Task: inverse folding
DNA sequence: TGACAATTTAGTAATTATTATTATTATAAA
DNA sequence: TTTATAATAATAATAATTACTAAATTGTCA
């Protein structure tokens, strides 16, 4: 799924900065960080590149309930824990033989009360849709 | 968590309509449906009541990747499957002893390739925040 | 029942996250 | 270098949601 990217200082710095973070920033939070290195950076550049990078499988776009989407430099499928008060997101590890609530190895201090499980796929209708010729 | 609600024709019809659906409509889709019964209905009324109803635990607000949020008349924790092409959402049932991918009892025709697991809670910082006095 | 208070609504304006546009600048290819 | 391609900054446009407000509805209780 991953493809190579043309380089530009902005794109490289955005990606590198996101990789270095353990947090899951919004586009705007990441913009503020990268802006320290590239002061003339535009917010639209951050949005455009995060979209591109997530389409290419280099980063992950997260829907965590807040108004703003969040981004994760780790593009592999892994569970998250979200604070419903402040929106902060952390990675979490599961032990794959136990049931959900017991399986969390490190709760990261979160007081957990709910889970959201979502599978992603393609529905029957969309599977049968022949792609349009170019 | 559920509290009682004051009634108004609009609120009752919105809730009843959502309960009857097996689908997971956006606020706008639900608006179109309820509008058939209450032609002068306002979209803002639908948004306001869905917000209220979900805060009170009568319905569930879903973040499924699209721009619009979706709503589920079943407020209990249960897994969903989302079509990444058209956005359609379906309920899904898991067998609780198997690992994830194998545990899905009925895929509803979806061709599934990924999973998103999200726990919800309150982070350490927010737990220690004393609530403001009224 | 009727008078008043409280709640809810419709309609619309405002807000806000994200995306599109465009002229300019940077990068790559020849 | 010269020319073509792609990316950027800055800003405008879009679209989902929320806030506002005057009018309508509902609830309370004398």
Result:
């Amino acid at each position: 799924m991953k493809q190579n990217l043309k380089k530009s200082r902005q794109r490289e710095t955005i990606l590198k900065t996101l990789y270095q973070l353990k947090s899951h920033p919004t586009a705007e939070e990441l913009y503020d960080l990268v802006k320290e290195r590239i002061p003339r950076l535009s917010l639209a550049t951050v949005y455009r590149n995060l979209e591109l990078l997530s389409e290419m499988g280099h980063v992950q776009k997260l829907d965590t309930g807040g108004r703003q989407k969040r981004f994760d430099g780790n593009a592999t499928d892994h569970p998250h824990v979200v604070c419903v008060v402040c929106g902060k997101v952390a990675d979490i590890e599961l032990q794959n033989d136990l049931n959900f609530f017991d399986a969390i190895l490190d709760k990261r201090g979160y007081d957990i009360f709910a889970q959201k499980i979502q599978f992603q796929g393609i529905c029957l209708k969309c599977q049968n849709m022949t792609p349009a010729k170019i």
